[in-house]
Amino acid sequence: MESWQRAFILHTRSYSESSVLADLFVENVGKITVLAKGARRKSSALKGMLQPFTPLIVQYSGKGEIKTLRQVEAMSLALPLVSVFLYSGFYLNELLHRVLVAEMEMPTLFDDYLRSLQQLAQQVPAEHVLRDFELSLLENLGYHVDFFHCYVTSDDIVESMHYQYQSEKGFISSLLQNSSSFTGEQVLALGKRQFNNEDTLRAAKRFTRIALRPYVGSKPFKSRELFLKI
């Protein structure tokens, strides 16, 4: 049997009349799928614990694609997310569920995710939290981009100049103005993760959507539909 591991629920679905399949984000392991036997029964204590944003410790066993959940305990109540902060939490879960490959270990991402949820619970501006987490996720995926130098000349990025972003390569100075162009100020803000105005914040959202597109595909996010209803 596995040792106790910290975890969060990303997604659940019914498996039978009495059981649930749960996708967990597990510290030092990554995403796994577990079978929670009896979790749908009215008398099951699991029903109240297998909820998003509840810090868990779990034990599971098995070597196949689907593990068996042996024990689970809630470390605390679910983090109190409301309104746009709740929808932002659902977006983080949906993003991880789409992007993570089973048992792909990402040593620092679990703490980044926990910190993001805590910030959302504290009602830190959601757009700042989401952009910071998306950039952390990209780093963990091996998507390393130099935000401080032109990738062709190695010259320092200059705030007043314009740059074209070339996927997974970096930024190159250019006079073109299109959906892949950014000002030097916007590029440096990405590197520092300091979005001090609406312009740099919008640019960060545009960049992360470009960079994440190969990982998430074209299917709309259900959580984004919730944002539109606010």
Describe the fold and architecture.
The protein has 230 residues and is α+β, with helices and mostly antiparallel strands. 29% of the residues are buried. It has helices spanning 46-49, 83-99, 109-121, 126-140, 184-192, 198-216, 222-228; strands at residues 5-14, 20-26, 30-36, 56-61, 66-74, 162-166, 170-173, 181-183. It is built from 7 helices and 8 strands. 37% of the residues lie in helices and 22% in strands. It has a 5-stranded mixed barrel. It has a 3-stranded antiparallel β-sheet with strand order 7-6-8. Strand 6 and strand 7 form a beta hairpin. The protein is elongated and about 65 Å long.
Topology readout:
Blueprint (H helix, E strand, L loop, with lengths): L4 E10 L5 E7 L3 E7 L9 H4 L6 E6 L4 E9 L8 H17 L9 H13 L4 H15 L21 E5 L3 E4 L7 E3 H9 L5 H19 L5 H7 L2
Parallel strand pairs: 3-5
Antiparallel strand pairs: 1-2, 1-4, 2-3, 4-5, 6-7, 6-8
Helix pairs in contact: 2-3, 2-4, 2-7, 3-4, 4-6, 5-6
Give the overall silhouette: elongated
Name the helix and strand elements from N-terminus to C-terminus, one letter apiece: EEEHEEHHHEEEHHH
Our count of helices gives 7
Distance between the termini: 45 Å
How many β-strand runs? Answer: 8
The residue fraction in helices comes out at 25-40%
Gyration radius (Cα, Å) is: 20 Å
Q: How many strands, which pairing sense, and closed or not: the largest β-sheet? A: 5 strands, mixed, barrel
Main sheet: strand order: 1-2-3-5-4
Q: DSSP strand (E) fraction?
A: 15-25%
Q: Segments where pLDDT lies below 50 for 5+ residues?
A: none
What class, by secondary structure content?
alpha+beta
Average pLDDT level: 91
